[in-house]
Amino acid sequence: MKNRFIACSSLVILALLLSGCMPKSFVDPGMYTGGLKTAPKIDKPIPVTLSVAGYINGSESSMATSVWKRRFSKALDVAQVLVPAGEGQAPQGNLNIQMDNVGDMGQAVGKGFVTGFTLGLVGSTVTDGYVMKSSYTTADGRKSEHEYRHAIHSMLGAGANPPEGVETMSPMEAVDLVVDDLVAQMLREMQTDKMF
What we know:
196 residues; elongated
């Protein structure tokens, strides 16, 4: 079963590459809240111990953990509110993030196959959902826990277009935008919870 899935996936990717179809993605406009420019500002960033766990459809993945840790570390560094503690820096809290990429793999493969089989003439859109859980504990034991949801829509083929006025980008750019937006949402909630 797994080998058949890999073979089908490989055929879909090959057909898409041969047809010149490269995915275009966009962040769900109904979920996007403005990204890091909407994050709160503080005078002095708070160094924290950062723990990140990545999941794919509820199953922990070391590859996903590695990707998400890099992306969340970068977004936190840019936001300059809670920052991963550097070497020799005493953490003033613990931030735990769990990021789960949820989606229907069967539906994605089926749509990709149809798009590839028709050499891109039939377009399709696939949605990747994201569920982020955050837990922040200050040095004095106060705690803030929240859950957030986001989505990226990726389109393949000639007939797949985003809603009017929505900017498309590469899938990786869309992932960065989602992470930035989730970090901003989390920091705004923490500010509301009076965590800093």
